[in-house]
Specification:
Layout (H helix, E strand, L loop, with lengths): L1 E4 L2 E4 L13 H12 L5 H8 L2 H7 L17 E5 L7 H7 L2 E6 L2 H10 L6 E5 L2 H5 L6 E7 L5 H4 L5 H10 L2 E12 L4 H4 L28 H10 L4 E8 L7 E4 L20 E3 L3 H10 L3 H4 L2 E7 L7 E7 L8 E7 L5 E7 L5 H19 L3 E3 L2 E4 L2 E5 L4 E2 H10 L3 H19 L2 E2 L4 H7 L9 E2 L3 E2 L7 E3 L4 E3 L5 E2 L5 H13 L13 H4 L4 H19 L9 H4 L3 E3 H13 L1 E7 L9 E5 L4 E7 L6 E5 L6 E9 L8 E2 L2 E4 L2 E3 L7 E3 L8 E8 L2 H37 L2 H11 L1
Helix pairs in contact: 1-5, 14-15, 15-17
């Protein structure tokens, strides 16, 4: 049975009649979004709704995981577990035919509505095992994006993950490939305090899933075993960063990250995470020990019966921007091993931006020649900009090597030699604001003595300067403007983007680079404003994910802060123990949190108990028992290890205050409790007042007793007493 939503075919032949899984009401909201808004409006909807599920299912960043795959446009693709269509659109735009398999009807409709203008899309609704039996097509690509880990649910067999790949492989063309994205069970983020993606618990995956079932992820070694067992399948390994869900860079075994490249922290949009350590520094350690492939957060595998020869070895996405500026950078390897770099528009509107790189290259070549700096050659081919792949090290790396060796004087000298080059190139005439300048950087209040040139490459920073044996080259000159920008702003960016973005360079701040470069504190304020306006220009109407982190994510907790918070919670917690005449133990207890220093609750008593102990938190020096009654409002008889300083107010000198009910009457059903923690100093002051009063009373009593004793002694020595004693003996 088939129906159409727009141009999309929805085949329900194998649909069981009801959805076997759902995220609840949020799916109704997502269905309405897919029906009522065009895809180009999704970013605005995400920023307005501030919801993790909506971000996850509708963000265009999801497509990054496969939008770079080199399709020819003639491919037939099978997408297994298509969900709400997060990556379906990218496939439809690049392939000839796309067939989806999805168990949920509601999710299939969301997918269909959001892609209703695609005439090359068919969605098969139902269980994979049922649908697979009737597949007659052979496919160029079969995708498993966030699906393989659920293999136990899809495949009913003794070895479901191996069998999953075996079954899928039967539907590939001889040279067909499987594109598989999945979390790495040993991903560094899990060691660093992120919860396991599917279960939301700390360390569940890296411990081997001791408490959970139904979903499994794998280490690289485990995956290699699965591939071999499934028919000796071969794979190109890629490593999406920060993970496969929202990848902003994709590395490979042929192009691993550089030291200092991996520094994202704010990517836990769905759950609270602990900050157990600085991941960026640990990544550098892993990279220097050739261990990054084992600890990457996610895997992306291109799998074939023969070893795939996937040309791209590295992709960096710059598509968190205004559509007219949205691009990605790709490094590809030819059959002869030659590497090339491409800048590719992510959106059709960005084609002009990419083509402009050719013009920029020509203009900068002439400008930089006087300082013996070459420009990475650029050739425009169709809408892509092809650039040469340069070898050598960046100026940033060179400076870092000098820093690590403690050669800071040499570092400063080298750094300022390039600052001087920037000044020599960009100080040709007095600066005057133009309308174009104001449009990009704002109408800021600049000094009157600044200088400039007609063309300004503001991204002349250490990371974009390549040093080789016989030449210096500038790369990544995308942010070059055909209007004047103060040279001093370029110098500011050189210092800022080297000095401020890596903690290991903090020691250099004492060398006053800004001041030595002639940049005053008031200048910095203006340049910060210019940078802010520049970033707004890049974004346009687009809202970047990083700007939604604080609104959507539960956030990050520094482990020390978390420990301190949890300790405070334990201090402000009522723990109720129960027993039957023997000692108390943790197993027979329950905890209640004080809220704003108060607690009011009714505890249902377990059967056959004879005694209770109430522990109102460690260090609760002052406590007011507002109410402690049985269910019939009769008073509970208790004793404490504290001192009552006024009616119902107690002071505890020890760190473990206790309230003991050593005899629970028969047939009692519950105990009503109302308490509040008192300010320590005030309660302590009351205690010492009571203590002083009691001490005075005891001293007075001692004096009275001494007087009585003296009277007795005097009486015992009298004749009358002796006569009395003699008579008593008789």
């Amino acid at each position: 049975m088939e129906e159409k939503i727009g141009k999309v075919i929805l085949d329900t032949t194998c649909y069981p009649g009801k959805d076997l899984y759902s995220d609840g009401a949020i799916e109704d909201e997502m269905l309405a979004i897919s029906r009522d808004f065009a895809p180009e409006e999704f970013n605005r909807v995400i920023s307005e709704r501030k919801s993790w599920p909506i971000l996850y299912h509708f963000s265009h960043i999801r497509e990054n995981i496969l939008s770079w795959i080199p399709f020819t446009g003639e491919e037939k693709v099978l997408e297994i577990g298509s969900g709400c269509g997060a990556v379906t659109g990218a496939l439809c735009e690049r392939a000839k035919e796309v067939t989806c398999i999805e168990l949920s009807m509601k999710r299939s409709k969301i997918n269909a509505y959001r892609h209703q203008n695609q005439d090359n899309l068919k969605i098969l609704v139902g269980n994979f095992q049922e649908i697979e039996k009737n597949l007659t097509e052979k496919y160029d690509y079969i995708t498993l994006i966030g699906v393989f880990e659920y293999g136990e649910s899809y495949i009913r067999s003794e070895n479901p993950y191996v069998d999953f790949l075996r079954i899928i492989s039967k539907h590939l063309k001889p040279d067909g490939k499987i594109i598989l994205a999945i979390e790495n069970r040993l991903g560094l983020k899990y060691w660093a305090g992120c919860t396991e993606d599917h279960f939301g618990t700390l360390f569940e995956g890296i411990q081997g899933y001791p408490k959970t079932k139904g979903v499994k992820t794998f280490s690289r070694k485990e995956f290699n075993g699965i591939l071999e067992e499934a028919g000796n399948l071969k794979a190109d390994w890629y490593y999406p960063y920060p993970d496969y869900k929202f990848p902003m860079t994709i590395h490979s075994d042929r192009h691993l990250p550089a030291s200092g490249e991996l520094h994202m922290r704010d990517y836990n949009f769905d759950r609270l995470r602990l900050d157990l350590f600085q991941e960026s520094q640990v990544y550098n350690t892993l990279l220097s020990n050739d261990l990054y492939p084992q600890f990457a957060n996610s895997f992306l595998l291109v799998i074939g019966k023969e070893q795939p020869q996937t040309a791209p070895v590295y992709v960096k996405f710059s598509n968190e921007r205004d559509q007219k500026l949205s691009i990605y950078t790709e490094i590809s390897e030819a059959v002869d091993g030659q590497l090339t770099v491409k800048k590719v528009p992510s959106q059709k509107k960005a084609a002009a931006h990419v083509r402009n790189l050719g013009t920029i290259c020509e203009k900068l070549t002439g400008m930089y020649k006087e300082e013996e700096i070459e420009v990475n050659r650029c050739r425009i081919k169709a809408d892509c900009a092809q650039l040469e792949y340069l070898t050598g090290i960046t100026l940033e790396d060179k400076l870092d090597h000098l820093l690590e060796e403690g050669r800071t004087e040499e570092l400063e000298k080298l750094f300022f030699s390039y600052i001087q080059k920037v000044k020599n190139i960009h100080e040709k005439k007095p600066f005057e604001k133009t309308p174009e300048f104001v449009r990009v950087f704002g109408n800021v209040n600049l000094r009157s003595d600044l200088k400039c040139t007609e063309i300004s490459n503001i991204d002349f920073v250490p990371a974009n300067i390549i040093l080789s044996e016989n030449k210096v080259s500038v790369i990544d000159y995308e942010w070059t403007f055909a209007f004047p920008v103060p040279s001093q702003f370029l110098v500011y960016r050189m210092i800022f983007y080297y000095l401020e973005l890596n903690d290991k360079r903090r020691i250099l701040k004492e060398r006053d680079f800004y001041e030595k470069a002639g940049i005053l504190p008031e200048d910095i304020e203006v340049y910060v404003e210019m940078e802010h306006n520049f970033q707004k220009y890049i974004l346009g109407e687009h809202t970047a994910m990083r700007n939604m982190y604080a609104q959507i994510s539960p956030g990050r907790v520094e482990v020390e802060d978390y420990y301190r918070e949890k300790k405070q919670e334990s201090l402000e917690m009522l723990q109720i123990f129960w027993g039957n005449g023997k000692s108390f133990n943790e197993a027979d207890s329950v905890r209640y949190l004080f809220r704003n220093g108060k607690i009011q609750t009714e505890f249902e008593l377990p059967e056959n108990i004879t005694m209770l102990r109430l522990d109102p938190g460690e260090m609760s020096k002052g406590l007011k028992i507002v109410k402690l009654t049985w269910e019939d409002e009769s008073q509970v008889k208790f004793y404490t290890d504290g001192c009552e300083v006024s009616s119902g107010e107690f002071y505890f000198g020890e760190d473990d205050p206790q309230i003991i009910v050593d005899s629970v009457p028969e047939n009692r059903k519950s105990i009503k409790i109302e308490m509040e923690i008192l300010e320590r100093k005030t309660t302590e002051k009351k205690f010492w007042k009571v203590y002083a009063e009691q001490k005075r009373a005891m001293e007075q009593m001692s004096q009275e007793l001494a007087q009585k004793k003296a009277q007795v002694d005097q009486m015992e020595g009298s004749k009358a007493w002796k006569v009395y004693r003699a008579i008593k003996r008789v």
